[in-house]
Amino acid sequence: MNILVIGPGAIGSLWAIKLQQDGHQVAVFGRQTESHYQCQFGEHSYTFSNRQINDIKHADLILVTVKAWQVTSAFDSLARQIDPDTIMMLMHNGMGTVESIRTLLPTNPIVLATTTHGAFKPAPTQLFHTGQGETFIGAANEQGHRCQFLCDVLQHAFPEVHWHPQIEHALWRKLAVNCVINPLTAIHQCPNGNLAFPRYQAVISRLIAEVGAVMAAENIPVHLEELTTHIDCVITATSENKSSMHQDVYHRRKTEIDFITGYLLSRAKKHGIAVPENEALYHHIRTLEQQWESLI
Ligand SMILES: NC(=O)c1ccc[n+]([C@@H]2O[C@H](COP(=O)([O-])OP(=O)(O)OC[C@H]3O[C@@H](n4cnc5c(N)ncnc54)[C@H](OP(=O)(O)O)[C@@H]3O)[C@@H](O)[C@H]2O)c1
What we know:
Belongs to the ketopantoate reductase family. The chain has 296 residues and is of the alpha/beta class. Helix content is 44%, strand content 19%. The chain has two domains: 2-165, Rossmann fold; 168-295, N-(1-d-carboxylethyl)-l-norvaline Dehydrogenase, domain 2 (Orthogonal Bundle). Helix 6 packs antiparallel against helix 7, helix 7 (201-217) packs across helix 10 (261-271) and helix 10 (261-271) packs across helix 11 (276-295). The longest helix has 22 residues, at 167-188. It is globular and about 55 Å long. The structure holds NADP nicotinamide-adenine-dinucleotide phosphate (NAP).
């Protein structure tokens, strides 16, 4: 396939390399203006064409791996170049971006993806795969339902990949994990494993109860005990990890809070559900961001 990766950061470069290794014609669209993008991964260096209009026009699949808050601006100038049949796949944490893509590209098949692979780019041209994970993909519009074959394509390049018949269920489950782990580890600047300490248990229970109430109102199947066990397992399995929001706050970068807790708050408001614990974390992170913004 002709594949274009928009946003060749950590996750985007990992997929670009795995897909190129598997024999696909892969190009990228990054923010650097050079005509080629090179990335060292393990023993090898991989080269991709970068920012070429023909790569956009001829793409069978466009994989979008910018951060959630970067999605709309990444498309502003590109949407007109994208063929109406090109499959669009969004792969990022958080929810709430697909609505703008549906409006900008009303005829394109849209597929959403969520992955638990870990990737780290210590330098602009160096990549590490820091954690083996799995990826779920699923349709986000009518045309997207015809793209189930993509599961085999991606599975061959970088397993495990599963087709999810109701991808929003998987996205909400990931959102629940992120609503708990990301803001708490960012505010306390601690690794994920610290959230297993007794002092965090009461707040975590309240956060999960609030998220569960919103999920139920959204008709997403949820059992609080099972969700709690799942989140505990993620905390244990990733105990040494620093969450992306932890790292963003440490480096004073804009976080994905608007598309994680912020998305939860907007859905809670629509259903008239009070979510004070999540609201407090949201405002705490936004206040931190505003302090840095005011320094720029
Ligand atoms: N890294 C992980 O282990 C991991 C795991 C699971 C999920 N995720 C999720 O995956 C998403 C991507 O994360 P990441 O860690 O890969 O972030 P990242 O390294 O910051 O990658 C985002 C890339 O998009 C580029 N970009 C931003 N705006 C752009 C634009 N308008 N046009 C083209 N490129 C643009 C950025 O360029 P600049 O660097 O120049 O800004 C950067 O290279 C996030 O939602 C994250 O939460 C990450």
